[in-house]
Amino acid sequence: MEHRDPQCCLGTSPLTPDEAACYAGLFRVLADPARLELLSHIAAEGCRPMGVGELASLVGLSQPTVSHHLKKLAEAGLVDRVAQGRSTIHVVVPEAFARLRRVLDVGL
Amino acid sequence: MEHRDPQCCLGTSPLTPDEAACYAGLFRVLADPARLELLSHIAAEGCRPMGVGELASLVGLSQPTVSHHLKKLAEAGLVDRVAQGRSTIHVVVPEAFARLRRVLDVGL
């Protein structure tokens, strides 16, 4: 999913319909408690590699469920999947979150 | 909806299940293009009072649809409704957006 860096945020000028649709899609991906928990585990661990199995045990979900959520987060550009040896680790994409924080700047 | 100010954000320590459910609910309210457009119009106008009719014409939706979205935003604590004479105007709640921006701070 490509996002142009918004010149505007909620507080400076109205969003165009395209921008609104794009950000609504990103917020929809975040509108899930399990995904937020996963993100917080990945982000709080900083650069420490964590595989699906470890994440699954941390949030108390099955590995297939965690893989599904991680796929959605990766498709939205919120996490990157990095091959490491025979496993895949996940890291957050700081720029994507910076962009969302900027959109939520109501300028007040 | 009550939200305790998070001592943590995504980047400092894992969210509890309750925190994750709370913020997922807020992101669900934001996961709608029309609501984001409405918020951006309300926020970009700063303190200028805008009624439902003016907002409806700005986003090209019917007044009942706009009223429905504004009710959801108000229930989530993202906008306040303020009686002004015979009409109701809407203002964003800066603290609610500051809290969401903080949650989206991945600390990287």
From TrEMBL, chains A, B:
It comes from Corynebacterium liangguodongii. InterPro entries: ArsR-like_HTH (IPR011991), HTH_ArsR_DNA-bd_dom (IPR001845), HTH_MetalResp_TranReg (IPR051081), WH-like_DNA-bd_sf (IPR036388), WH_DNA-bd_sf (IPR036390). It holds the Pfam family HTH_5. This is Transcriptional regulator. GO terms for molecular function: DNA binding; DNA-binding transcription factor activity. Keywords: DNA-binding, Transcription, Transcription regulation. The lineage of its organism: Bacteria, Bacillati, Actinomycetota, Actinomycetes, Mycobacteriales. The keyword Transcription regulation applies. The keyword Transport does not apply.
